[in-house]
Amino acid sequence: YVWVWSALPILLVFIGGALGAITGIIAFAINTQVFRSSRTTAVKFIVTAIVSLLAAVVYVASAVLLSSVLG
After folding, report:
1. Is the pLDDT of residue 58 over 90?
2. CA distance 42 to 63
3. Counting beta carbons within 10 angstroms of the beta carbon of residue 3, is it exposed (0 to 12), middle (13 to 18) or buried (19 or more)?
4. Amino acid 71: pLDDT
5. Is residue 62 within 8 Å of 23, Cβ to Cβ?
6. What is the DSSP string of 11-67?
7. pLDDT by residue (tens digit) across 14-45?
């Protein structure tokens, strides 16, 4: 279940194409590093939830910025 939780940001691939893939893969890499750390289990889940939410925010902000720049 830890791998599934860590991989949730990869769902951005299906929503956001290449931009979503880049954002999701980076967030997945960060999440796997967090789960390999020596923090408590609760802290690991909280931190990875924050990382996943931030990935979605970064994706939306990047998509809006690209849309406004490219027209």
Report:
1. yes
2. 32
3. exposed
4. 78
5. yes
6. GHHHHHHHHHHHHHHHHHHHHHHHHHSSS-HHHHHHHHHHHHHHHHHHHHHHHHHHH
7. 888 899 999 999 999 999 999 999 999 999 99
